[in-house]
Amino acid sequence: MTIGTGRSDNLAELLRASGEVLTRRWVELAAEPLRGRLSVAELERELADLYAAILAGLDTGDRDPNSDAFAEVRALLSEMSRRRARAGFTPSETAVGVFTLKRAMFELLDQAEIAGGLAEVVAFSLLLDAFGLWTFETFAKAREEVIDEQAEQLLELTTPVVKLWDGVLAVPLVGTLDSARTQVVMEKLLESLVTTGAAHAIIDITGVLAVDTQVAQHLLKTVMAARLMGAECTISGIRPHIAQTIVGLGIEFGDITTKASLADALRHALRRAGVDLVAGDRRG
Amino acid sequence: MSGVERIPILKIGDVLLASIQVDLQDRDVLALQEDLAEKISATGAHGVVLDISAVDIVDSFIGRMFATIAATSRLFDAHTVVVGMRPAVAITLVELGLTLGEVRTALDLEKGLAILAGLAGDRAAR
What we know:
heterodimer; A: alpha/beta; Globin-like; Transcription Regulator spoIIAA; 2 domains; 5-stranded mixed beta sheet; B: alpha/beta; 4 helices; globular
């Protein structure tokens, strides 16, 4: 079955002629589920642009949602769902922006007759469905981007290298250690050793809740690499159950110094650096 | 064909310093090993410092070079210190599973010389 260009022009004509009424109703319907979280003026602007782009696409007589005729529509929809995703809207709240056009159109069709009849309406409706799915897809993509960005920021945030003393650096690790994070820690620590010239480093894992073989392997590699560069690395703050896991997994720490607490590790590092700690006499 | 790149070996007191400023080919490494052995034997130096702060890329052959040089110098009763290893190089060596044996390492030349001075002190005490 083919839909003649003359007939499809009729639906496009109707949509164009009643454009103002239709968009107003569309904005009304689309604004409802958003409950005022997006200003009506903003929504009006977005939907008016979208409507113009859809009409321009319909004018070509094309009904394939992936064709060049609707490239503009797809671009607008991607941009819209990207904005929604970043603003924290749900996927349905985003897709509703497209699907409500259908409802507005059906309401309009109640009062008007078009030449193409049902086939024409179905074709247009399928087109809108495809656009709705498109918003879903771009929405999901945008959300994933946001999540990736945040994960990256978190990685940077949670691995500070701090200076405890002249020539003593520490990396307090908090949270879950995975291979990617230990890798970042390793690189950051080694870089800091070069820039500060510190000969001692302490990796404190008091805030780490779980360690698996791979993570332990990375920690060991960090210590070995630091040693190759001429720095001594101590691991401190191993929790009791992590200690049991390490022994249970049969991980050998070899001649790597491990201390119960950060304080012990610092004392050890200072002693190695030849610093004497003497209790001060406060009476004088 | 270009000739073998000779790494200059400098003598400071009774320490020999070889500063590697270029990416090493295997034959350069072998030349350095020979030159160092001759120089130690000729000068009776008690320490060798290998400065690799300008080296970005290492392979297992160069990794083994450090251990070989150290073992050779031990025969002349000299200690070897590798100084200025870059993080990327250290990570590579660890990933390759290479250990440097009895080679000592230091962050920079100053600390390396301090280590050798300490070892020389030990020897004097014996």
